[in-house]
Structure formats: structure tokens, C-alpha cells
What does this fold into?
Amino acid sequence: MKLNPYFIRHNMDGMALLVPVTGADFHGIVQGNKSVDVILECLQNDTTEEEIVNVMCARFEGDRAVIAADVADVVSRLKEIGAIDE
It folds into this structure.
């Protein structure tokens, strides 16, 4: 899976922003924290949820199961708005 090219990732002072461009079916701005920014960073290249979880575990302290659940939630929400190509 990979970030849809109709969405642009931007980081502003530690806040993640995902902005749709012309051609995207979603109209709005997605805002998230540093964790979401890392997920979006991973999605710049073709990746899997497991690979994202590995990156998150390397960068942040926490229980792997909780991190995996959080990654799954963010990925699910991004899929709902069409921000991820599979």
C-alpha cells in the first residue's frame, strides 16, 4: 500500500497534515500528531502495516500490540477517504 498521489503530506511544527489536491474524491484536511506523521512518511513508499508498526516501535516507546492497533486504525481511516492505494 502507498499514499495516493492525490494527497500531499505536510509537516508543520510537529503536526501532520494531509491535503488532497485536484482529482481527489475527499475534500478537507487531515490533521494528526507526530505518530500520524511517521505513518504518512512510511506511506510515501510502498509498504505494509507490519513494516509501519516496525518503524513506529523503533521510534516510539510503547506496547507493540497498542502501536499495531493504532496503526491499523489510522490506515483504516486513510483508506476510508481514499488516501491509500493498495
